[in-house]
Amino acid sequence: MTGRGNVAAVEPRNGARSPLEALAALAAEAGADEIAAEARAFAERVAGGRFYIACVGQSKRGKSTLLNGLVRERILPAGVVPVTTVPTILRFGELRGAHIRFVDGRQRDVQPGSLVDYVSEDGNPQNRKGVAAVEVFVPSDLLASGMCLVDTPGIASVFAENTLATREFLPHLDAALVVLGADPPISGDELGLVEDVARQVRHLVFVLNKADRVTASDATEARRFAERILGERLKTKVDRILEVSALEALGEGAPTRDWDRLVGELRALAREAGSDLVQIAETRGLSVLGRGLLRELREQRDALLRPLEESEKRITALETWVEEAGRSLGDLAYLLRAERERLRARLVERAERFLAAAVAPATDDLRARVRALAVAKRHLRDRSFELAQEITRKALDRWLIDLLPQAEGAYRETAERFVHLGNEFLARLASVDLDPGSLPPPLARESGFRERSHLYYTQILRLTDPPPWIRVVDLLRSRGSAREVAERVAAAYLERLLATNASRIVNDFNERILESQRRLEGDVRAAIRNARLSAKRALERARAKRAEGSEALRSEVDRIEDRLRRAGRLALAAPAAPG
Known about the structure:
The protein has helices at about 20-30, 35-45, 65-70, 115-120, 160-170, 190-200, 215-235, 245-250, 260-305, 310-370, 380-430, 470-475, 480-545, 550-570; strands at about 50-55, 90, 95-100, 105-110, 130-140, 145-150, 175-180, 205-210, 240-245. It has about 575 residues and is an alpha/beta fold. It has two domains: about 15-290, Rossmann fold (3-Layer(aba) Sandwich); about 305-570, no CATH class. β8, α7 and β9 (about 240-245) form a beta-alpha-beta unit.
């Protein structure tokens, strides 16, 4: 009924199981159920020749509508509030349908009209229904090659779970369609997301959606600004960002702007790189899942081989290190408060410099635009306030783009202390007779904020709504006098907007730094705690096996050694990634 399985599957090599299928079977045999399930999912999509192009970007960029435009039908729910709460995969199917997979293993086939009950914030607030993934089947010729388009929750959505869901999906990407907007053209969160995606994939297609909502000159300005900023952050030339309108593509007329070029680039990507992307996905799956299985098997083996008394001493040592780590992290957190205060002072100083440089030119721009207004006298004041809001927002956006790398650099300076301490403890854990392969990997150097921005600009609307008698007086003034008054009050309003929102930016950065440090500290604690729990689980398995007798113990060790050899061969069987 859902139309699944309509893409011809790739035949297994010589009729045998693929390396991913063999890895899934081996993980299931070893009791590593999560690794087994993920390996089966990887194997199924590789066998089907499917590769994922994820549509990523800030909330409300029109990602769902853009994907609807690409398959030429309104199949994904879209609306005025954040809609997508879990990654939703559009793939080819001769019959329209949808397949829901839940975190607890349940599955359900539904009609596309019911998607809103599973993927929207209204129908599934904060993903309370526990949806793991959604596949939607569409008879679109664009998808017939094996291309799958993935709708992701928006970065910087008001719902924190949405941002997390998108970042957790990044390791599954094969290519990305990055959706930007014209107002503002690109945010700090989007820059961070693009950097994350660029580290994962080689193929990026950039579009500036909703180009029909701004003038041609504003769209061009936004596109050039985004191209420059992205080029600076990615340290590479960004080819032209395509200006499109998803709503135009869904309309009755032929789509305009760069729409045909966008479709052409996606078709070319599928034609020229699709098979390579599938192969890279297989290599990535074998590498990531194979390492996880090897760690699990080594821990199982070592727990059986070492004397129980030694394992128990090892657990005691781990507990001691965990307690010591907690005390040290607490001491470091206290010292870093002074660092945060120092950074706040630096940000306040930068805000003061920004205001000193920005107020005068912004005011001159406002006055010139107010003088050029050709509106009825009764609208002069309101339109002048709107111009002040627009000019303020653009000035703040540009400052924010410049400020973000500086603030992230200051954050990295303090974050590296946490990372260094965490890796120091992991190294000490390895010295307590722990197999390094059983430990969590070292903590990576921080590349930017972990916490999303909660910033929104206030418009201080109470200042734009004067008492009724003032509006009456405005009508009694001459046009020249009314314009002068509108200029004066709008200029004062603009200066207040700049100062208030610059302060909000500083406060937002301070909150992001504080919360990012808290989350990093949690990672340090979790890495150490997970090493302890892994050792405890292996010890419990060893106790149970020893209780069965020495013969059972030797047989179990032999089985684990055999699984280790097979897992190692599977890792070597991974095809080389295309150059």
